[in-house]
Amino acid sequence: MYDVIIIGAGPAGASAAIYTARGNLKTLVIDKAPTTGALAMTHKIANYPGVEGELTGKELLDKMRNQAISFGAEFIQTQISAVDVEDETKYVFTADGTYEAKAVIVATGSKGRNRMLPGEEKLLGRGVSTCATCDGAFFQDKEVVVIGENEEALDEVLALGKFASHIHFIIPRAELQGVEEMPELPKTTLYYRTRPVEILGENKVEGVRIRDNNGGEQDIVVDGVFVFLSGSKPGTDFLDGQVPLDEENFMILDDFMQSTVPGVFGAGEVRRTPVKQAVVAAADGAIAAMAVDKYINKRSKVVPQYK
Question: Is the pTM of this model over 0.85?
């Protein structure tokens, strides 16, 4: 019997494990694929607080996981098939057996689109990004492509405008969804009703092939591609109706990351986060962990960790 099982070992899950293990809670972290999460595949990070210089996402995750292990957290790699979280004891069923805990933190992040563009997966972290705030500074005075069809993509174009020499904004629809009035976009060429066909390059991004509404194709030579196409969904399918989700399968949580099911918490991109950043997910994990401590020890309020 564990005090808490954390499902997912990205920044939210690893941060939660640091706090729960340091708080003397018997902690198990289950992760099906440690090297395939969004952060693990990030090629460069230079803006994580307290970490000077550049490092890869995997290097940052390794630091977080090793810190959690140093406090006593256990990490295992296996596939989760189902959970039973409705009663006081929570059961997590995996390919390697069943694990029990008093509480569960769901930190499984989000799943990518069902179909990636040709070249997208190969060049992810080598010029392909899904976060202008994270990676925009690496494209100072370079040409980039932004692919998207909603307000999120527009926000990323505005963020990239501080760095890129020119932005090619590829918009598959006739207009941006959720945008009532387009702002001025200097240094930006807009391509409406245009779809990306392929991201070009062998070891790094060299360009993008696009196709317009009439079937005409052209190649754009760029150094970076930022993809914000819809389809990213929270990885909550395995909860199977036992925990309240919204219409897009995000967990419904309060300010302390608690669901309405006693002993079930969430953190990171399983909830509607205001922005997708590793530091935000890590903060979610810390909050969820302290809320778990309150739940298990039947405290009247959350007790922060200071030393």
Answer: no
